[in-house]
Amino acid sequence: MEQMHPTVLSEIVHAYDIRGVYPVEINEEVFFTFGQAFGTYAICHGSPESANNNIAVGRDNRPSGESLMKSFIGGLISTGCSVTDLGIVTTPMVNFSEYTSGVSAGVSITASHNKPEFNGLKISFNKKPFLPKGYQELKKFIEIGKFEKGKGKLKKEDIWPKYKEHILQLVKVPHKLRIVIDSGNGTTGLFAPDLFKSLGCEIIELYTESDGTFPNHLPYPQVEAYYKKLSQTIREAKADFGIAFDGDGDRLGVYDEKGNFVQSDFLGAIFAASILERKSGENIVVNVGTSSAASDYVERHGGKIVYSKTGYPFMMNTMQKVRSPFGAELSGHFYFKDEYYGFGDATYAAARFCQIIGEKKVAVSQLVHTFPKVYATEEVRVNLPERTDKEKLIEKVKEEIIRKYPEAKINLTDGVLFTLPNGSWGLIRLSNTENVLSLRAESKKGAGLKQVALLMEELLGAQGVIFNWKQV
């Protein structure tokens, strides 16, 4: 194909994935080229123990996935890499293959929770997530246009039986639960009902038919507006709770027996507490925007909070550095490394939640009500002008906070997290994938929330960023 235009590359290569609209930004030729680039990368960075550069490739159920996967595999094989074709699977099943199928890398063709016209690539290499510098290196290979040459081999593998059996060995649900599963017609619907029936649960299925056009709603568990039918079904069926999955099975959402969404940081704290009950004093890795109520809950159970940048590559790297058995993101990604492999897996996380509720014999809403009361804004996302110097903006905001509140605590792990003397905090964070600011504020008192929210409006307004909180 003709050399890919640098502008196109910049638009589709993001901090921790490759993603674009099909066939406008990505197509079969583009994916063949990315196959060549990643095959070249794998050969250049491989080792004698790298399983002959055998790469596992799977995809979600989007309509464009079949032809894009065929092209990507073709690009890989043309460099001399061999490929294990996993077919339609969840992204965690691709990750699982790295530990069980003797492959050196795993690639998932997916656009996660995005609209059906999107597709992309998520890459893991040598059991580690691809970092931004890895994706930038792929860009360089493509810009230069020189790739390894060879003739790799192709084989197919059905990873599901092995994956299912592994979870069944690790997780036991002590008594029967009634749960509603909403996969939003995403890939998880092909597998989750079978697994949870095997765990002994009574299953009520909602939109579990595989349809990558997502005709009922986008599979995005954290957007409550998409899950009114799930909430209604939970109440009508008198279910113990409901679970929702995103398009490729790495994000989980839980809705309690009343149909209310359990916010992701609370859910992560519940997971962490279950691990800390067995071994106190462990580091628990979370995003900087995690509620103080969730952090306090973890600390009451003997955990130590460690902050990480948002995004699965950063979370997994931080967990490795501090030897953490568990990490949780506000996006609904949960990383278990106490008994599991440490990558985000919504199906496994949902199974662990069933085990926790089965063991505690308590309603999910009662468990949530044990968290301290806080007042918080919803996340507000503010689009920035294209030529905004984002780093300079963050630096000026930080300097102004220090000037106004010299006693404030500042955390720069991911943007600016500032905590005022009264315990109220605000977060101003740059998105890793978009030209967007993400804003959150929280306090243990309503007056404190208004104080920090108004301060954030003032700080950003002085930099020409105007926004309104949805509800304060």
Automatic annotation (TrEMBL):
Domain annotation Alpha-D-phosphohexomutase alpha/beta/alpha: ranges: 13-127, 162-259, 264-373
Keyword Metal-binding: yes
GO biological-process terms attached to the record: carbohydrate metabolic process
Protein's recorded name: Phosphomannomutase
Pfam families in UniProt: PGM_PMM_I, PGM_PMM_II, PGM_PMM_III, PGM_PMM_IV
Lineage of origin: Bacteria, Candidatus Blackburniibacteriota
Keywords tagged on the record: Isomerase, Magnesium, Metal-binding, Phosphoprotein
Family of this protein: Belongs to the phosphohexose mutase family.
Cofactor: Mg(2+)
Boundaries of every Alpha-D-phosphohexomutase C-terminal domain copy: 379-453
CDD domains: PMM_PGM (cd03089)
GO MF annotations in UniProt: intramolecular phosphotransferase activity; metal ion binding
